[in-house]
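Customer escalation, tier 2.

The customer says the design service returned an amino acid string that "doesn't look like it belongs to this structure." They asked us to rerun it and document both sides in this ticket. The original structure tokens are below, unchanged.
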């Protein structure tokens, strides 16, 4: 589809259902699990600890020009075991100073059962 139809440069829609006992061999496809590993995995083992965990991940990125990008993400993780939920909302603005150097300012909001937290970050990335 053309960008005019979607209104976003990139749109990623992901749905996954992961059964209890599923093993991620030598990999973790979800980087966000590092912050919630006791919630989703047995720490360091890569095994699912809950029954039928579903993941919904929606990411939209807009490239406004060669220098400016915006990014939004919605993540919802739900487990059938004890109705545990994890929701995350992210928004950021990125300025590309050069193709190998950029700056990013973002906000992240986490909601997980009885836990809630948020953060604002400023990231500088240099690629060699």
């Amino acid at each position: 589809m053309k960008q005019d139809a979607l209104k976003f440069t990139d749109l990623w829609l992901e749905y996954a259902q992961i059964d209890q006992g599923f093993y991620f061999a030598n990999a973790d496809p979800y980087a966000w699990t590092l912050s919630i590993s006791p919630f989703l995995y047995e720490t360091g083992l890569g095994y699912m600890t809950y029954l039928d965990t579903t993941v919904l991940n929606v990411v939209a990125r807009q490239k406004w020009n060669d220098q400016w990008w915006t990014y939004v993400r919605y993540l919802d993780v739900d487990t059938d075991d004890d109705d545990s939920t994890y929701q995350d909302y992210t928004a950021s603005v990125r300025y590309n100073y050069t193709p190998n150097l950029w700056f990013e300012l973002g906000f992240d909001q986490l909601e997980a059962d009885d836990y809630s937290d948020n953060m604002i970050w400023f990231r500088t990335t240099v690629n060699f």
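Tier 2 assessment: The sequence is consistent with the input. The mean pLDDT is 79. The CA atoms of residues 23 and 47 lie 5 Å apart. Sent an explanation to the customer and offered a walkthrough call.
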